[in-house]
Amino acid sequence: MSKEDTVNEFESVLRTWSDRIYGLALRLSCRTDEAEEIAQETFVKACEHWEDFQGDSDPGTWLYRICVNVWKNRVRSEVRRRFWFDRQPQAAEAEPPPSRKLEANDRRQCLDKALARLEPDDRAILVMREVEDRSCEEIAEWLDIPVGTVKSRLSRTREKLKKLYGDME
Amino acid sequence: MNPDCKTIDPLLADAAADRLAEIEQQHVERHLPSCTSCQTSLQRLRLLRSDLKSPMPSAPVWFTSNVLYQVRRRKEGRYRSQKPRVAIWTGVTCATALAMVFLSDKQFTTRLLPRMNLVSIETQNAKRGFEITGPAASLKIAHQVSPEYSESARQQNLTGVIEIYFMTDTEGAVDPNLRVVKTTGHKVLDQSALHALQQWKFVPNAPNKTDWGVITFHFPPSF
Q1: Of the residues A27, B46, B85, B171, which has the fewest C-beta atoms closer than 10 A?
Q2: Which of B44, B49, B58 lies closest to A19 in CB terms?
Q3: Which residues pair with B219 in a beta bridge?
Q4: Using CA atoms, how far apart are residues B76 and B99, in angstroms rounded to an integer?
Q5: What is the dihedral of CA B33, B35, B37, B39, to 10 degrees?
């Protein structure tokens, strides 16, 4: 199959899944600019390995997995960068951009703001479990942590989010 | 907290998501009518979950074409990068040396150079007032519209170069989902170019084949 055929074949997958993957990236990162980059990198990587993907699993699950990996790598490199160059506390960085803070007058904005205040890993666990309905085992495998840790962090994060979200309502 | 609440509380999140096993569900249902605290907790968890699951914004309109552009660029880059860099640099050096030798020869520049395709393509591009790169460059143009360079733009001396990523459908028409790769810096010129390109039509190379390309327009037009 020529490279152009591969891209043409991949295009239908891209059109089907672009909104879902962009939505996931937006939930994980809480920033529109970063979400676009994460989603774009996800599809570029997916297309590079399209020929290796034999269709053993659902393309959605495969794309989700790539998206989570892309996001995870970005968070890790951001943590490393912050360690060496910028010792700002992480919660301050996770705040939504100022333009969004000003519009925080509806439930959606409140929730976005509350999610942005969570630790990135905690947010990812919650989003994958509650929004994407992924099993704790899948989340543990994707984030490379034990299942028990997923469950305990999930419960802690729900409580934290309930409190953050409740305070804003 | 009611002693029973301690066993119910960990189940509430899954109850809100309707993920409980039947026996757990019965346990929760038996407990709830007598406990307002757990009722409130379950209600808040349901609300939180429904807000979390509310539809997210769609990807930006340019997202798909932008990804396809990146994918194609990467694929072309990957094939290029497979060649050893030393060989490429050696080739470039030799070609430059040969070009310098030939260009210093007056007979070559005055008689042979104009016959070569390279010059004719450049001249043709200059005459046409646009350049196309990518697979669409090989397509025949069935209908073209030049971007309007208005009198007011001329008076304001607005200049610039715009590069637009476009796709053609199976009929050869330009897909309206255009992506500006490089802007002129002037909205009026960008809009003029986009408006013109939307009216273009190409002749597809093969039935049911779509293509893509990047077209460059210069303002003021160079022809």
Answers
A1: B85
A2: B58
A3: B160
A4: 26
A5: -10
Task: State pLDDT tens for residues A43-62.
Answer: 999 988 887 776 667 888 88
Question: What's residue A92's pLDDT?
Answer: 42
Question: Helix, strand or coil for residue B91?
Answer: helix
List, for residues A21-30, the tens digit of each pLDDT value.
999 999 998 8
Specify the pLDDT at position B211.
84
Q: Tell me how crowded residue B121 is: count the other CB atoms within 10 A of its CB.
A: 12
* Residue in A with minimal Cα distance to B66: A40
Residues near B53 by beta carbon (within 8 Å), at least 6 away in sequence: A130, A131
**Pair type for strands B179-182 and B130-133:** unpaired
Q: Where are the alpha helices (DSSP H) in chain A?
A: 3-29, 32-48, 59-85, 90-93, 98-102, 107-116, 120-126, 136-143, 147-168
pLDDT score recorded for residue A166: 66
Chain A positions touching chain B (beta carbons under 8 Å): 3-4, 6-8, 10-11, 14-15, 18-19, 21-23, 26-27, 32, 36, 39-40, 43-44, 47-48, 107-108, 111, 126-127, 130-131, 133, 154-155, 158, 161-162, 165-166
pTM of the predicted model as reported, rounded to 2 decimal places: 0.57
Tokens encoding A119:
């630790």
Q: What is the mean pLDDT of residues B150-165?
A: 88
Nearest-5° Cα angle at A56, A50 to A62:
55
